[in-house]
Hints:
Residues 277-475 form the Carbohydrate kinase FGGY C-terminal domain. Belongs to the FGGY kinase family. This protein is of the alpha/beta class. A seven-stranded mixed β-sheet has the order 16-17-15-14-20-21-22, with helices on both faces. Strands 3-2-1-6-13 form a five-stranded mixed β-sheet.
Amino acid sequence: MNSIDMKQAIIKGETSLGIELGSTRIKAVLIDRHCETIASGSYEWENLLQDGYWTYNLADIITGLQEAYSGMKQEVEQKYGIPLHTIGSIGFSAMMHGYMAFDHTGELLVPFRTWRNATTGAAARALTEQFQFNIPERWSIAHLYQAILNEEKHVSRIDYVTTLSGFIHWLLTGNKAIGIGDASGMFPIDETTHDYHASMVRQFDDLVAAKGYSWKLQDILPKVYAAGEQAGRLTETGVKILDPSEDLQPGIPLCPPEGDAGTGMVATNSVRKRTGNISVGTSVFAMIVLEKELTKVYPEIDLVTTPDGSPVGMVHANNCSSDLNAWLGLFQEFYAAMGQQVDKNQIFGVLLNQALQADPDGGGLLSYGYFSGENITGLEKGRPLFVRSPESRFNLANFMRTHLFTAFGALKLGMDILTRNEQVAIDHILAHGGLFKTPVVGQKMVAAALNVPVSVMANAGEGGAWGMAILASYMMNKDADEHLEDFLDHKVFKDVEAQEMVPDEADVKGFELFIERYQKGLAIEQAAVENLVENWRN
């Protein structure tokens, strides 16, 4: 589409906007009818550890939303010389799971408790036993039940419980809605009804009946919508929040809000059965679209859905790139201290590529990038840790490979359950996230860890905000009865190139040696949690 046609498309509102609130960045992406990016904006932020809970405050949520939108809007004006008054469709996505509880006035009752908190173990275990369905610690229902077990006073005042994406959608539309993928990280979904599992809802109500709360579970959860459905319209109040200049017009239709897992599946065209994707960031998760039910309940495997309701086996590790980024930042700091001009991308690229020169197993080194607790390995808290023996081959190449390997260590343990215990077939996995902006190395490490061909698309850097924009576009531009997977195949990814990397046998064997070391060394990590205090300044 040439500049003149694009300008007309923007004026006519033949566009779709996706905004995703990720763990370290909020990003807004505006696309045309062909799902090509027109403009984008972003805002960097970080979670806070407040009163023992990982959280983001409401002011930062609103500021970040506005800044990301404003950056996108300014890029439109700079590129095309026109103000942005309308958009064809909008969608919001965010980190899945967590807990946002409100009273009837809309007041947030306790600070937002994110997916990163490993504080709901008792509730998660009790509900898993009650439902005979795995309820991970991150899930909203686990947070709610733990608050009940803790006898927290706010529970009796609850009028609404939602996720971050659901909160933003409610704020801007007034509609208490949620996409089925994000909903499946709140409470189990019935595949046949595309709604919360009715018998489990009744079980939960019976479980807490003696407490005498005025609410029933179904009444305080958002309504579930599937991809392609309209879930509200932008209100005048919503305009003032999103675009304080009020250039944007109200009435724009919104698609169901989704979680970052769902937008990752869309952004990598991984919604068909036997396909999967891996999303790498502060946390890491792999999503495999299942052909059949699993034979038993596994605490390491979340059962969630695609944005259109297909069952998915999800392996989610709380920790991935944070410690790796911290080490890369240290090397960047050293480079600057040497009086050199710092090019962050170049430094990161050079360091990451050192891993390609390493011993296959990382030379006997060991690392845990646990900034927070890790559910898959049973750690309630985290201590970033690097360990070596006198006999280890301690050099830069092995150091970098070890930190890349450990970023996928917990994920590997969960994925082995699917592929080895349940014989889940995976034709290929598509990878996305900032790590894959450096060619080859991240892809090669993931292929070694999972022993599955791994592809990275040419647009892998577009990420979840782009995937959310696609879902918004799907709502407006799909043909009658056109399934999401067909829309993606024929209208989004038809001409997109992907580079596939098959596992290297030496790397696979090296990772297996590393993961043995990783499992044996978990006692070291546990000892660090028990003996290395958090408030060391005291």
